[in-house]
## 1
Amino acid sequence: MRRREFISFLGTALAAWSSMARGEQSSQMRRIAVLMNIAENDPLSAPRISELVRGLDELGWSLGKNLQIDYRWAAGDSSLYRKYAPELVALAPDVILVVGGTGVSELQRATRTIPIVFVGTTDPVNRGLIASMARPGGNTTGFIEYEFGISGKWLELLKQIAPGVSRVMVVRDPSETSGIGQLTAIQTLAPSLGVEVTPADARDGKELEHAVTQIARGSNAGLIVTLSGAAISNRKLIITLASRHRLPAVYPHRYFVTDGGLASYGPDPVNIFRSGAAYVDRVLKGEKPADLPVQAPTKYELAINLKTANALGLEVPQKLLVSADEVIE
């Protein structure tokens, strides 16, 4: 066989072998575990899971063909995180996707070998979940939901919509250590805006109702809800309380506004699951979490509910309406 013919034959043979190898890999059943921070019957669940599954499918991972997914739903309950984390680890999945910092902490207690990809986590370095954003180390990496500086934007937004507000209660879940950083960013900005800030620890409906009732007893009061699983699970109660006590309130995500809240500023909470799917894919194909940098959001969305503003007797500045990504009328 002449040299040129041999090289052509060799190239064809290698291509065929590579194709066969990929076929064998794609047909191998892999297992993913998912630990969610909300309830399974929450309307927010379906679009998030759909985005995750769609993202994985586009990368070649199809349910029932070469992929199995096991879910657990913590619903913002710390005790459920503690219960479900070891359950999922016992299933020996190839990788675990988890929403929220509390879930990451519990999973790391249960395993230091199974790869963990987080989405929707805040301040993972100071929480001790990773070594650094660029080089997370260990078995954990993922996508943060907020940088703390964004929390100050919530106070700015509240003052723009309700300039008369001089007292603001910041609702946080004390079990979420990221709430400290969010609160600090708000407190740092408060004096320049002439606002007195009061933190309120609230992990369930009873504590939330007590906190909101307390701040509503005075005048010129407003509300900022920081990001936590408890706030997400109790969002309809918080929105109802704010409406009942006629409190202007700012929230961390758009779905609070579509449920009747006044305004929000934050990243797209669904798209981050597509990003999570990309990292899960890379881990399944052999990359290590320690080598995948933790990434931050690149875009934040402003949402305003004009119906709620009108009910509170507030006039939203035109410049905010023009810049808003979504205005509900």
Note: The longest strand covers residues 30-36.
## 2
Amino acid sequence: MSLAPWKPEYELGLAPMDDTHREFIDWLNRLDASPDDTFLEGLDQFLTHTQAHFDQEDRWMRGSMFPPVECHGGMHAEILKIAHFVREQVSKGNMKMGRQLVKELVPWFDDHAATMDSALASWIKQTEYKTDGA
């Protein structure tokens, strides 16, 4: 059984967001199953993906004039700050911290998708903001 199975409630009805969220969940599952000797490399790839994921949503928020842009974007920045700190710890051999990050990101994502991302998806649909090319 995977750490984070895809849940129907993750479907927010905005295809580019849903696709990126599927990739995020896939990355969490890959990292969870990754052996220690490849974990750091996978974590680096996950960080690259997550930065692009958050940058995409941040562009959408700014482009669509999403009212709580600072709150939502601040959450992205905080998660990246924590993840980069943990990455440094993993590079020093602290695998336990890296594995704990992966586990903690599952309930964080559950909440973030159900609240912040759901609100953003709804706003984008309501305002008819075009996400393509952004």
Note: The mean pLDDT is 96.
## 3
Amino acid sequence: MARRNKNIKVISLFSGCGGMDIGFMKAGFSIVYANDFDKDAVMTYEKNIGEIDNRDIKQVKIDEVPSADVLLAGFPCQPFSNAGNRKGVNDVRGTLFYDALNFVRAKQPKVVVFENVRGLLSIVNNEGKKFIDEIVSRLDKVGKGYKVFYELVNANDYGVPQNRMRLVLVGVRKDLKKTYRLPEKIDNSKTSLKFVLKNLPKNDLNDEHWELSPQSKKLIVHIPAGGSWKSIPDKHLPERLKKIKANMRKYHAPNFYRRFSLDEVCGTITAAATPENSGIIHPHKNRRYTVREIARIQSFPDNFKFVARSIAGKYKVIGNAVPPQLAFTIAKSIKSQIFS
């Protein structure tokens, strides 16, 4: 997948395996610099897109990076995720926003785009204030200043075959005197699994799946499509799950081992890809989705190849990625509203 030589130049920080980048490339933008530290993500990015700086962002000198019109920064979401420990800015990864801000200050791109998990809206900084308010405030004052728009969106509303809630933040440099709004929702009537899982490519190297644990294999045979651990007879449940089931209110009624049916839209694909905490189980086959299947659920094209040091690494980079279809929709709207 060659980079397109277009006039609107993009700096991509925390690029991952390239989900955001290929969405912007499809919309006609040119990636002039990309960076990520994760080895598995770098391997996949190089395989499909091209050159990427694999150094820790803190080791990159700003004057080594070319100027650009747009800066993308999907700084790591784990510190803010409901599925993680939510240490936020107390987690070293949570401070990576400030590194992105240094690049904004130096390069003064016309547009800044951040994508992150919904937990970013509620996490607080070290002063007890909402971190999202600090982000908005700092972008408002950095360099020429940015007018910031942000909204919690469901990627499914933009054609991604997955219910994936994400925060999208777009900052437009004030001197451009332009405003931004997210595009209208698009048709998502064909985003259920029955459409996603049909006509899979043949002889695909990514037609591979990560084997489940022996315990998970025993449990999922009792779960029908559309069901979850609640479908498993008590006699087959491990003691830990029996304890939880006996006091659902205490444990906030978890929905472990969710198995979406072909008529449903898949839930959020996670980096961990654990069957207990994500809907990673195939509707009618007793296994995880294959790498290609979850890539489709994340809206990656079939010609995008995933390489990593392990099978788990492939699931990780896909789960961490920005869905390319969501990125494409955002990129098109930025192009028409800001650069037209």
Note: Strands lie at 9-13, 30-35, 70-73, 111-117, 146-154, 165-173.
## 4
Amino acid sequence: MTDKTAPTQYVFGPVPSRRLGRSLGVDLVPRKVCTMDCVYCQVGRTTRKTIQRDRFVPTDEVLREVREKLAKGPQPDYITLSGSGEPTLNADLGKIVGAIKEMTDVPVAVLTNGSLLHKPDVRRDCARADLVVPSLDAGDEETYRRVNRPEESLTFDKLVEGLAAFRQEYDGPMWLEIFLVRGVNSDETQIDKIKSVLARIHFERVQLNTAVRPTADPDVSALTEPELQAIAQRLGPDVEIIADFRGESYEQAFHAADEDVLDMIRRRPVTLEDIAAGMGIHQAEAVKRVGSLLGLGRITRDRRDGKDYYRAV
């Protein structure tokens, strides 16, 4: 369970991940600073859409928090650069990956939407990681705009070119996540177009996801597990489903954290900011806990005055 006496600003967890086991998260940009505004995002709507890289957070402080978390334990399976926005926007990404690898043998993963991989400096930074997991949610420009709502200068061709260029330069494992939204990018035409991209670029794993958790746009509709299985078969043999249809905790060790959040929500309706501040945890960790409780049907979400409030069922 999280140490409430020593809240961290940039590092959260370890939290359970279906793909990465015990994942120690590192947040390199403020909440919802991103290159896209994806309809399915579980963190919420993008508040600042940009492609300009910057030093959004103090690098020395981030590394100090990582070092302290590792010293306290438990040992994570991965240190994951992801969090509340697009991590490749941080201009110190490569420096941070290198410094973390000097302090620990725990592998470093970068979870990215892939939109900036057409930039050589971004590819160089990501190439320092032990694992890179980009996304591809469309097979053409029109669908890319509908699903991912990227910054104006970003195009589908740039996305694919960046993925292909990084694959040529990067010797480490590269997994691809595809997030499917019913009626938008799930028809056979889109799947076949995505398959044609997969034929050009080798990924060690291709992972299918869908909206089993609350999303930025409330009208996003999930596919069923059998539908995802059919699409996986259509795409090829190295495709797996990572969507959590059962709403179950991945590790019992994290169950108490969910119960602590639920106890807080039972007292009064609260926002993510309230949960993070009240429990001394990072907002990204609060998002994980709330997503778990929503998936289990133990809380509901209401929107009032432009804010999401969570109530116990």
Note: Residues 249-313 form a domain with the Arc Repressor Mutant, subunit A fold (CATH 1.10.10.10).
